[in-house]
Specification:
Length: 358
Amino acid sequence: MGAFLYFRKIYRKQRQYWFQYMGKIMKHTTRRTFISTTLAALGAAGVAFSGAASAQGEYPTRPITIVVPHAPGGAVDSTARLFADKLRDELKQSVVVENRAGASGMIGAAHVARADADGYTLYFNASIHSINSLLYKKTIKFDAVKDFTPISMLAQGALIFSVHPQVPASNVKDFVSLLKNEPKKYTFVTSGFGSAGHLAAAQFLYETSLSSQIPIVLYKGAAPALQDLVGGQVSAMMDPMLSSLPHVKAGKLRALAVTGRERSPLLPDVPTMRESGFKDFEFYSWYGLWSPAKVPTEIVKKLDAASAKIMASAEVKERLASLGFEAAYKNSADFAKYIDSEMARYQKVIDAAHITVE
């Protein structure tokens, strides 16, 4: 309202000046000269007004919404809220997290793909965003690459390979022997079809030649999956530390390995999958920020610069570490390349393990 009153005041003064000025020149000009002079003056006035409006409208001038396509409380939501709090401080503008859960994250993704490309609707998700585009090629309602602009990769977290305490195995090698001796006795569980945990479990079973013998039971969320794992209804799971670590610390689950390239400082006595005999096994759930496609480059650069500062913060790194994650910032261009390489890797796992949508 203040800007409106300001520009109205300017307009009234300019109009008064205009009439006075035009009254003088009308006495000394032809009709043709008058028209050309008028058009030139109007053009100059338009440029001046446009510049003033641009200065008043530097992004962001209103609240930003970050869409999280999963339910509150999970790994994606927790990481998104930590990031949103810091982005609010960097941009000096309100940042709201909006949960739009359903269909393995595709409901929220479709909403963002259709949103205005003005930088006020952003998208925060994990690697499942890229995996979905490979699994649901025939039914997906958006293009996970063409309909989005990668802004920044922010964090990543290794998974915990855990089993119920009654499973008589203290390491991965022993567990593989159990599976091969009594395949019908054991089952894997995953928090969702196409999740990082799902693909990691599928890769493990493929590498041990057990894909056709050990079922992977699909759940809608980590909470119900972990509930059955803790209760002994299922045998094993690969899951982000945020949700599994408390159960491991409480003795309700036994950690056999972690899927990162190095041991986790939160579980220093638990070996990696590489140390457990799987030399090429490395799996992370990674997290990033996207916008709808065709968002202006200057807005992407501003958000990317803010992301870089946030992920370099010692406070943020410490907070992420406590949740079982690590800061893994990549700028917009590098994030796009990383997505391409990860999708190629996921496709190999999907093909090798014959993962299909039922």
